[in-house]
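Archive entry. Fields below.
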Amino acid sequence: MIDIKEKNGKSRLPGPEMLLIILLFLCIVFSASVGSSDLTVKDSFRIIAAKIPLVGKHIDISDLKEVYIKIVWDIRMPRIIMAGLVGCGLSVVGAVFQGLFKNPLADPHILGVSSGAAAGATVVMITGIGMGMSGLGAIGAAAFIGAVITVFFVYRISCVGNRVSTINIVLTGTAVSTMLSSFISLMMAFNHEQIEKVYMWTLGSFSSSSWTKVIFLACMSFVCIAVILFFSRELDVVATGNDTAESLGIDTAKVKKILIVMASFLVAACVSVSGIIGFVGLVVPHSIRIMSGPKHRRLLPLSCIGGAVFVIICDTIARNAASPSEIPVGVVTAVLGTPYFLFLLQRSRRKLVA
Amino acid sequence: MKNLWRTMIGKAAAGERTKNGRETGIEVSGLSWQPEQGSGYILNDVSCMFENGKIYGIIGPNGSGKTSLIRNILRFVEAEEGRITLDSLELKGYSRKELAREMALVPQNTNMETSFSAFDIVMMGRVPYQERFAENSDRDREIAEEAMRLTDCYAFRDKAVSMLSGGEAQRVVAARAIAQDTGWLILDEPTSSLDVRHQVEIMEALTKLNREKGRTIIAVLHDINMASQYCSNIVMMKNGRIHSVGEAGEVLTAENLADVYEINFDMIENPGTGRKYYIPYF
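PREDICTED_STRUCTURE:
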């Protein structure tokens, strides 16, 4: 089962990478073709290809109805890409936190980012402040701001001197999360008519996707993931212990700070466009780790693609399984992810550790 | 500018080293350290000199400041009072990466909950020399393999470290420190979870490194007999202060040991080999 061993360290099979990338494209095309108005996979592929610069000029889609082109490109594609980006972001952050906190249970929501976002979103939904805003939307903006403030707060509390204690930050994050959840419950209790809206938001959904949001998320993801990948070797060493990392010439305190800040921004961006989607950041990195081994240089990029595939599949199910209504995507990720995860856990003899 | 100055001094010093064969070693002077302001001093006015090419044993009871002293030497923490110099240059003047090319550590706790293989861990010893994103070179691999053979852990090179026993993990970590290829090897109880045979093997490997490659070794040891057998010099600590320093034979006396550990010792000399053995009274 285990993995592609680097026996002599030189010849690495590109197998899993290629497989996942192909799977990702298949998922995108397939997901774009299913829905309330069914298109053939071939047609949706042609529509997507026609929109790609350079290649697009050679593809003639004039035989397809304008409305189909609109459905695929303006309605389904932003949603699919956004699901992919969120899956990518959450999985990478999950992998980073598991390594950084040396805790296999760490997930992207552990520092309270998500409950901060939820609190921000709830305030806007209940008070209706700035609801007319366009672009990211008032709820998204409030969620982003809520998330960033929360992380900043958690981070400041858990700093001892110039250093961040990993145990402190995880405990503070959990405590602040719990407090914010209670605050949300309190607000819901006083505003019964908004309960459903808030509740559905916290379960996560991609139904409000737009190209504007995709661009926002893509920019954030690009910067944050690039920085995170830059530190993959440091993450390897830090995962084996702080003293060790320092004695190997790594400025542990600095690396931790940068990674926590980048990861938090990434989660904040994801949560602000999609609500809280659980389980992705926990399951995907662990599943990938079984395939890639513990080295972050392979684990992180593979988690990106794996996370995108997983969330795209989940969202396709979420919007089609109970058509015409939708299932919250957070429910699908957990319902689908758990059995798969348990299956992997059962099959792999490798201990699941960060 | 400061950097330039430092590299110039560094280069000059290096030149001098090769010419005269003279390195100044690590000098600790007047070091007092407390973990936090007002928490009380763990190290009190510690001054001692670690000369190049020797094997130092730091001994003393629990809480006497042995680990704190080496954490200061490795600059994991920085004391406000006193100073530490490495080859006449203040420790603060080195970057983390430069220090990692001078000193390697075998920490006290070598328990690792990761699925990295033993070889991956030893390979990390090469990190201070590698460019970001660089692949492991053949030379890196050779050095790592040699280090693993030296500490007898080549046999389980592909095993995940989380599956290793305490002693096996300790040997893997020792191999990593050796692969770091530094002039100084600093070990915090390197033999604490080893059986007698592997204790001796590690100590022999260190002696060999010292003799053949001129590595200077500083080891915190609990086993007084190990210290007397393998160390040329001893730093004896008590209550955050240096109790006595000097050559092993001078420092390891029944009186000193009784004074530091507050328990009486018998010293027996093997008439055949002249080796000394220390036996505590129970």
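CURATOR_NOTE: Chain A touches chain B at residues 5, 9, 102, 161, 230, 233, 236-237, 239-241, 243-244, 246-251, 289, 293-295, 297, 350-351, 353-354 (CB under 8 Å).
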